[in-house]
Amino acid sequence: MEQETKSEKKMKKSLIASLMESGASPLRPPPFKEDTYHHQNLKPSEKKALADLKDMLHSTSNFQESMWGIPLTMTSESEKSDVILLKFLRAREFKVQETFNMLLKCLSWRKDFGTDFIVDEDLGFKELEGVVAYMNGFDREGHPVCYNAYGIFKNHEMYDKIFGDDEKLQKFLRWRVQVLERGIKMLQFKPGGVNSIIQVTDLKDMPKRELRVASNHILSLFQDNYPEMVACKIFINVPWYFSMLYSIFSPFLTQRTRSKFVISKEGNVAETLYKYIRPEDIPVQYGGLSRPGELTSGPVKPASEFTVKGGERVNIQIEGIEGGASIAWDLVVGGWDLEYSAEFVPNDVGSYTIAVEKTRKMTVTDKAVHNSFTAKEAGKLILSINNTASSKRKVAAYRYLVQKSVV
Q: Where does the GOLD domain start and stop, copy by copy (predicted)?
């Protein structure tokens, strides 16, 4: 995360500033282009700043520190260590002394906080895992994706349980750092590689005033100790007032900061996320096909994407199903609000069509369809999506797996 300007610091106490530093808008600036960290792409002044910073580290008595398992002064890991040092330099606008001070302070914090061992700790937040903050899959360019959703804390009992006093808050912050450290372990730290993560923040039902203190703490921790670790910040289910306030405050943000933001109103979540993340890697609650535990059960089967135009009916035909074979399928349409059905049509003209799933209205809150069927005879499965009652175009995805009968 980059260094704040004076204007940004003034806004830090507000909720909006806290959220921004931690989408799709037609006025969105050109997308953020992540640094390649190739030396040939650095300006002469930036190369000199890197060399000066390395000299300062080497000249520091008994300096043998490392970050994320990468020694900062060992020539054998120079490419990886340079990526880390360049992140800190970028955060301090390549001012060497300020970068050196930031780096030493961060190393001291990491030692005191015990970040090198935090990933394996059991912090007792099982009810928050996969709900509040969690890593889930990758974007289309290979960046690990971290999802954040704080709507659960609109429940006062849950809020008091997690944030009831300073000790609880500190424990939560430790858990939040643990989630981020898990994501960082997936990074490559090499020039031209995947060196940052994507953040998706769900603002639905988020208790604004209550979480201001926690938001500011998280913001400060990440700004001071994880510079340039986020390539893109996607805000989904954005309320109208957030969009209005963002339009007011955005002129005070740097072009680089604004380019990292994607703002998506409620109802456009799936359409926005599909631009950055494949459907099979998007959680089902956001219009994708990813379910809890799926990522640990082997490689994820890719999905096929398509669109359903307003006033259109789409039939997906899965042919070549043999008698005795079983077929399992997943299907989702972003923002549903249409009719769906599934039927099996035997090849034998004398056989009857089977209504596997009767026609039903799918609401905006429905998650992906996940079903299976065993065919007694050869035929085809037809998945029907009826959007004729709507004028809105919608993104959609499906995948299937056919297993032949084992005799």
A: 270-404
- What radius of gyration do the chain's Cα atoms show? 25
Identify the CA nearest to 331 among candidates 277, 381, 370, 279: 370
Residue 388 · residue 311 · CB < 8 Å:
yes
Backbone angles phi, psi at 111, to 5 degrees: -65, -45
Q: Give the burial class of 244: count Cβ atoms within 10 A of its Cβ; 0-12 exposed, 13-18 middle, 19 or more buried.
A: exposed
Lowest mean pLDDT among 68-82, 86-100, 186-200, 357-371: 68-82
Q: What is the DSSP letter of 312?
A: -
Locate 227 and state its tokens: 């510079």
Report pLDDT digits (tens) over 65-76.
899 999 988 666
Beta bridge partners of 148: 133, 201
The contacts of residue 86 (CB under 8 Å, 6+ apart) are 35, 37, 42, 46, 50, 228
Is-contact 181 115, C-beta < 8 A?
A: yes
Count other Cβ atoms within 10 Å, centred on residue 211. 19
Euclidean distance between CA atoms 282 and 304, whole angstroms: 13
In SS3 terms, 65-109 reads as: CEECCEECCCHHHHHHHHHHHHHHHHHCCCCHHHHHHHHHHHHHH
The domains located in the chain, with CATH, are: 6-277 (3.40.525.10), 304-403 (2.60.120.680)
- Structure pTM? 0.87
Residue 177 contacts residue 168 (beta carbons within 8 Å):
no
What is the Cα–Cα distance from 49 to 36, expressed in whole angstroms?
17
